[in-house]
Amino acid sequence: MSQTEEKKGIGRRVQAFGSFLSSMIMPNIGAFIAWGFIAAIFIDNGWLPNKDLATLAGPMIT
Fold it and tell me: To the nearest 10°, the Cα dihedral for 46, 49, 55, 57?
């Protein structure tokens, strides 16, 4: 196997691994954004502090 063929093989493996990682993260982007809004708005130091709703974000922060 020549060096250029070996580089192509490594590049394909890296690209496949990147695709695998993105396939795990992309479906969860909405959940991450929603959790961020809940945390920013309802935690104790948030814009609209609410103890009941802050319990949703609490376990993820600590």
Answer: -20
Distance CA 3, CA 25 (A): 33
Longest dimension (CA), the chain: 64
Q: What is the pLDDT along the chain (62 residues), one digit of tens a residue?
A: 556 656 678 889 999 999 999 999 998 899 889 888 888 888 888 888 888 877 776 666 55
Q: How far apart are CA 34 and CA 29, in angstroms?
A: 9
Closest CA to 34 of 60, 14, 15: 60
pLDDT of residue 20: 94
Please report, for the chain, the start and end positions of each structural domain, with discontinuous segments joined by +: 3-61
